[in-house]
């Protein structure tokens, strides 16, 4: 297991992070996973044994049950791990039980701390953008949590590039805590963040944490053009994130060939490709079983050749869009050679 710096912080996190959406299984989350404490303990133990020191959860996963199960599994080992959770999602029917207002953030941090059985969160992330609350109010509230010692660093998830730059611009001007990471969807079936977000993260020296690296199981190897429906699979009940399946099956065909050459699964090749991307800090993997986790844990061992990377890049590349193609054209001869 390799370790990388988390944004501009001094923290090192494992290149694989264990995600916890499969923990609990309440409500809409049942389609993703419904693991109880014994299964959670086994997965957490195996992850730590393999060198993972980074765990990600959220207050909305199974209505807080995911945080509770993770906190119990980490008993006695809290000081050895980097713990991340999130705030924003709806936690009740009331009009103020959602969002990024100071009131909601201050209420939710205490609930997360209690469920996780800890007195601080290493990385507290907003789970998305709130169109109602001014970003300035959100950033001040998050900074107050850092100053109170309840949070060490802050991050964001599912934001556009301009939203990140606006938030960090405010923080830089006010000398308050800034976003150190972005947690975003990135997979071979969804490379859109390469257009604007990765350049923004590079500019801001922020870390990239990847969620759904297998596109919600689409790149697991179970789906092909000939076998598009898998009984009992997550995508049968929860077809998310959206993918261009026609293009996706072309990608899977290439991954199958490369996987056969390495004698490994399609999923492992898909994860390995992400680990070869310079912008990626950590890839969040989730599992329902130890077999799934063990397969994912071996992804860092795969070294893809330049030819293999070129083949994967070609079949999964984004179509050129404006202004990207114009920027590239105008800067083609900008630097003297």
Count of discrete alpha- or pi-helical segments spanning 4 or more residues: 12
Mean pLDDT: 96
Indicate the overall shape: globular
Number of domains: 1
Low-confidence stretches: none
Largest sheet: 8 strands, parallel, barrel
Computed structural class? alpha/beta
From N to C, what is the helix and strand string?
Answer: EEEHEHEHEHEHEHEHHHEHHH
Q: Based on the structure given, which CATH architecture is correct?
A: Alpha-Beta Barrel
Number of E-state strands: 10
Radius of gyration: 20 Å
- How large a portion of the residues is in β-strands, by DSSP E? 5-15%
Estimate percent helicity. 25-40%
CATH superfamily assignment?
NADP-dependent oxidoreductase domain
C-alpha end-to-end distance? 39 Å
The CATH topology is given as TIM Barrel
The neighbouring-strand order within the major sheet is: 3-4-5-6-7-8-9-10
CATH top level is: Alpha Beta
How would you sum up this structure, described in words?
This protein has 337 residues and is an alpha/beta fold. It has one domain: TIM Barrel (Alpha-Beta Barrel). It contains twelve helices and ten strands. It has helices at residues 37-49, 65-73, 102-116, 135-147, 161-174, 197-204, 234-237, 245-262, 266-275, 290-297, 306-316, 324-330, and strands at residues 3-5, 12-14, 16-19, 54-56, 82-87, 121-126, 151-157, 179-185, 207-211, 280-285. The protein is globular, with a radius of gyration of 20 Å. The two termini are 39 Å apart. The model has no long low-confidence stretch (mean pLDDT 96).
């Amino acid at each position: 297991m390799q370790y990388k710096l988390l944004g501009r912080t001094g923290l090192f996190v494992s290149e694989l992070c264990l995600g916890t959406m499969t923990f609990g299984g309440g409500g809409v989350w049942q389609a993703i996973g419904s693991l109880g404490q014994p299964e959670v303990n086994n997965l957490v133990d195996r992850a730590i044994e393999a060198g993972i020191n980074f765990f990600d959860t959220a207050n909305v996963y199974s209505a807080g049950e995911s945080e509770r199960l993770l906190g119990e599994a980490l008993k006695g080992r809290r000081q050895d791990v980097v713990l991340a959770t999130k705030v924003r999602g709806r936690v009740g029917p009331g009009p103020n039980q959602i969002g990024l207002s100071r009131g909601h953030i201050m209420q939710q941090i205490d609930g997360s701390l209690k469920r996780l059985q800890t007195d601080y969160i290493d990385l507290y992330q907003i789970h998305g953008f709130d169109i109602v609350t001014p970003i300035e109010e959100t950033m001040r509230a998050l900074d107050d949590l850092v100053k109170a010692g309840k949070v060490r660093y802050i991050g964001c998830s599912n934001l556009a590039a301009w939203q990140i730059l606006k938030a960090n611009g405010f923080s830089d001007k006010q000398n308050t805590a800034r976003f150190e990471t972005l947690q975003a969807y990135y997979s071979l079936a969804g490379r859109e963040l390469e257009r604007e977000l990765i350049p923004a993260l590079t500019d801001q020296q922020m870390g990239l944490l990847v969620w759904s690296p297998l596109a919600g199981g689409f790149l697991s190897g179970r789906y092909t053009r000939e076998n598009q429906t898998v009984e009992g699979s997550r995508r049968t009940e929860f077809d998310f994130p959206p993918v261009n399946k026609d293009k996706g099956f072309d990608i899977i065909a290439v991954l199958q060939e490369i996987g056969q050459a390495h004698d490994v699964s399609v999923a492992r090749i898909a994860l390995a490709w992400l680990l070869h991307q310079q912008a990626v800090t950590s890839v969040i993997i989730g599992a329902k079983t130890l077999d799934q986790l063990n397969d994912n844990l071996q992804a860092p061992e795969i070294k893809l050749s330049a030819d293999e990377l070129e083949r994967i890049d070609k079949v999964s590349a984004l179509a050129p869009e404006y202004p990207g193609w114009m920027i590239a054209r105008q800067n083609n001869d900008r630097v003297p050679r």
